[in-house]
Each structure stands twice: as structure tokens, then as C-alpha cells.
């Protein structure tokens, strides 16, 4: 399915037609890249679908910023846990090595 089309169709139903013409989507994607938004084609397609459905652009931008902030916080927490696990593993290995002497 093309990333410019609606969400995946239910089984047995015809595939929905894109609500954004291909040339317009390509131009929007190019603009998105020039502005360094970090949006991939699928994300941009979803955002355009929401805008076409009447979602307030400012509210949508706020949600995207909030999701990015939360994703960054989550990634930082994962990195802290991984670092703590590595330190604990190293400490455990050192303690086992000392007992073996």
C-alpha cells in the first residue's frame, strides 16, 4: 500500500484512494525534509490524513512535539537502565573474580 493512502483497509474491502495527490505529497515530503522535521513518509502521510479529516493543525503540532519529548525521555531512561545494568554486571563479575582467588 502507498504511504499516501488512508489507513490499511479492512479485509474484503477495496483499498482506499489517496486523499493527497502524489505530486502534492512528494512536494510536502520534500518541504518536510528541507525543514528537517524528521518525519518519514508514513508519519507525514498520517499527519496529512489527520489534517484532511479536520484536525486542528496547531493541536496536531502540539501532540507531535509532546510525543517526541516523551520518546526522548523514554530513550534516556532506557539508556540509564542499560548503563546501570552494565555497571552492576561488571561489579558482579569483579566480586566473583575476587572470591575465586
TrEMBL record:
Record flagged with keyword Methyltransferase: no
InterPro entries: MZT1
Sequence segments annotated as region (Disordered): 1-20
Pfam families: MOZART1
Keyword list, A-Z: Cytoplasm, Cytoskeleton
Predominant localisation class: cytoplasm
GO CC annotation: gamma-tubulin ring complex; interphase microtubule organizing center; spindle
Intracellular or extracellular location(s): Cytoplasm, Cytoskeleton, Microtubule organizing center
Family: Belongs to the MOZART1 family.
PANTHER family referenced in this protein's UniProt entry, alphabetically: MITOTIC-SPINDLE ORGANIZING PROTEIN 1 (PTHR28520)
UniProt-recorded name of the protein: Mitotic-spindle organizing protein 1
Species this protein is from: Chlamydomonas schloesseri
Amino acid at each position: 500500500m502507498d504511504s499516501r493512502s488512508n489507513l490499511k483497509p479492512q479485509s474484503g474491502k477495496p483499498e482506499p484512494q489517496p486523499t493527497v495527490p502524489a505530486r502534492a505529497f512528494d512536494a510536502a515530503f520534500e518541504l518536510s525534509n528541507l525543514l528537517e522535521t524528521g518525519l518519514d513518509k508514513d508519519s507525514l502521510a498520517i499527519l496529512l490524513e489527520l489534517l484532511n479529516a479536520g484536525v486542528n493543525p496547531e493541536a496536531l503540532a502540539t501532540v507531535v512535539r509532546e510525543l517526541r519529548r516523551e520518546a526522548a525521555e523514554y530513550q534516556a531512561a532506557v539508556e540509564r537502565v542499560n548503563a546501570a545494568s552494565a555497571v552492576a554486571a561488571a561489579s558482579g563479575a569483579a566480586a566473583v573474580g575476587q572470591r575465586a582467588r
